[in-house]
């Protein structure tokens, strides 16, 4: 059980001082690493004994165990409130580091294989659950400018089975597997592969355990100093993939862009 759930469960039975200590823990889950137990006690205005008693009530041996628990939560993608939300310099530094890590560790062979597969697929299905779905939508919008038969799933109200049906040899299923995936994620990847489609998997390091099940694996970190994961580097990778597909498709891609641009003008869809 997460620490916030433990606090919520025990909160009604805590004394006033323990509730103050619990409130302080909840306010500082994202930056507990910068405090020791004595500093946290002073911050909450309670005694060290009260703080220690709270830890035990919550099922932790000591403050070090609490800190390790919160680190594990954040690493799994759980939003943990950070107290440095105004530190834009720290946020920028982390974003730049994510971008650097993404492209320094990117396997050139896997990237080339991914762009060629996306460019040549008969049908292309982009699957993104939860926070990965906006990435799938964005990549679809980019790819549709230079090729057809690109779909994003799961669409609202649809099950993944009916979206995946009909994809097989000559098609590509790209799965965006960023953390806090649904429990059925591995089964979806396996079903796509079993159907004969080429499978491309893109995710943060927590998705490495699925990499062997995919034909192509691209890794992209989403760590952040904030409470929420950042997908800036993932969006940058989507741009690289789309550009690579256009380069592979060459004249066919340029012809489709020209046709789409002409339709934009004919339909008056975009401002001049």
UniProtKB/TrEMBL annotation:
InterPro entries xrefs: Homeodomain-like_sf, HTH_RpiR, RpiR-like, SIS_dom, SIS_dom_sf, WH-like_DNA-bd_sf
For this protein, the record's PROSITE patterns field holds: HTH_RPIR
Molecular function GO terms recorded: carbohydrate derivative binding; DNA binding; DNA-binding transcription factor activity
Query: Which SUPFAM superfamilies does the UniProt entry name for this protein?
Result: Homeodomain-like (SSF46689), SIS domain (SSF53697)
- Give a Pfam family name: SIS
Alphabetical GO biological process terms:
carbohydrate derivative metabolic process
Q: Which Gene3D superfamilies match?
A: Glucose-6-phosphate isomerase like protein, domain 1 (3.40.50.10490), Winged helix-like DNA-binding domain superfamily/Winged helix DNA-binding domain (1.10.10.10)
Report the residue ranges that make up the HTH rpiR-type domain in this protein: 1-77
Q: What is this protein called?
A: Transcriptional regulator, RpiR family
Q: Which organism is it from?
A: Arthrobacter cupressi
């Amino acid at each position: 059980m997460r620490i916030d759930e433990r606090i919520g469960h025990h909160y009604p039975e805590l004394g006033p001082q323990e509730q103050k200590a619990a409130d302080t823990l909840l306010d500082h889950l994202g930056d507990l690493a910068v405090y020791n137990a004595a500093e946290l006690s002073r911050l909450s205005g309670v005694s060290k004994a009260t703080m220690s008693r709270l830890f035990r009530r919550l099922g932790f041996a000591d403050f070090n165990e609490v800190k390790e628990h919160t680190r594990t939560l954040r690493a799994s993608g759980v939003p943990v409130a950070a107290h440095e939300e105004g530190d834009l310099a720290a946020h920028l530094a982390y974003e730049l580091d994510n971008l650097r890590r993404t492209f320094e560790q990117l396997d050139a062979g896997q990237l080339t294989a991914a762009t060629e597969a996306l460019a040549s697929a008969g049908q292309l299905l982009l699957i993104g659950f939860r926070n990965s779905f906006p990435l799938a939508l964005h990549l679809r919008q980019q790819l549709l400018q230079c090729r057809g038969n690109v779909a994003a799933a799961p669409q609202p109200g649809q099950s993944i089975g009916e979206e995946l049906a009909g994809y097989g040899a000559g098609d590509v299923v790209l799965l965006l597997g960023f953390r806090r995936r649904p429990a059925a994620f591995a089964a979806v990847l396996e079903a796509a592969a079993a159907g004969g489609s080429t499978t491309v998997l893109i995710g943060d390091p927590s998705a490495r355990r699925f990499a062997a099940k995919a034909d192509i694996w691209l890794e992209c970190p989403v760590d952040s100093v904030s409470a929420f994961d950042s997908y800036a580097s993932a969006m940058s990778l989507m741009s690289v993939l789309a550009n690579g597909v256009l380069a592979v498709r060459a004249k066919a891609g340029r012809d489709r862009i020209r046709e789409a641009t002409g339709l934009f003008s004919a339909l008056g869809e975009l401002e001049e």
